[in-house]
Amino acid sequence: MSVDQRAGEPTDAEQDPAGPQSDVPPATDGASTELAPLDVVVVTGLSGAGKNSAGRVLEDLGFFVVDNLPPALLQPMVELGARGDLRRFAAVVDVRSRAFSSDLQEAIRLLAEAGHRPRVVYVHARNEVLIRRYESVRREHPLQGSGRLIDGIDAERELLTGIAGEADLWIDTSDLNVHQLRATLESAFVEDGAPPQVVATVLSFGFKYGLPLDADLVVDARFLPNPHWIPELRPMNGRDTEVREYVLGQEDAPAFLDRYTEVLRLLLPGYRREGKRYLTLAVGCTGGKHRSVAIAEGSSPPDPGAARNGSAELYSASTSGRAVTNSAPTTAPPTEPS
Fold this sequence. Notes:
Strand content: 5-15%
Structural class: alpha/beta
CATH class of the largest domain: Alpha Beta
Radius of gyration: 28 Å
Oligomer: single chain
């Protein structure tokens, strides 16, 4: 459903036809004063049900997220974002009083009238689950006061009756883990119906400098012949054509790349399903100059859509941000084999 854009506030000249005239031509579409409508998600619900976890998922999905935003500030924040380059805005809102609840409902109504696309996510859980969660962290419920924990939960549930009835999505987190919560929100708010991308980074390193701290998968390329022992290749690195052709031309290199690609085709759909969005593949050799660089340059994580057990619709994660680094010194050839 298309929504007309909301026009910006009239200028002084527009308000007063007799006001000062300007020789500046009217703004074109590229410099329009109109405010682009935003996708706005308001996450509210019971304390302890997982509102903040939902906010973190929305942030991963490309939303600009504000935690603990008072309802009175919701519309001003959205309007401010609309004047910038924001397209998706989310706010985690706690309702601590009946006035807060009515203020939130009014703010959502005003956003819709302004041409934005507000949606409300109501996060809740069973009483016994909420009690168990509060007891595990030993925190006081915000509405508990000097009474019992269950009294605070019941009071909050009653306060939220109005906004809960207007929610676009109810999420009962009683039996959900964080991965299942992520999957639920992805199915509702991912753009264009496409699942989030798995951003894969392929980097090279030298074992003598230690393992990369952020490596998820480590590959040892030291099973290949070392170009270090060939005098004309020694001063070069794995980005040079001669070294790359030497390394990838070894009998075992193509088979290794093919089989490792098959392993990634198995792993990437599972990583995406479990909510892992960033993957670092580290390829190492002795000094990180020849073999690891050539293998890293020659490898490319496959599209999980090509996996035997999945379809492009379910596993359409792609790789981006591909970077190859060389941890070996670049000012002079290493004195040890690489």
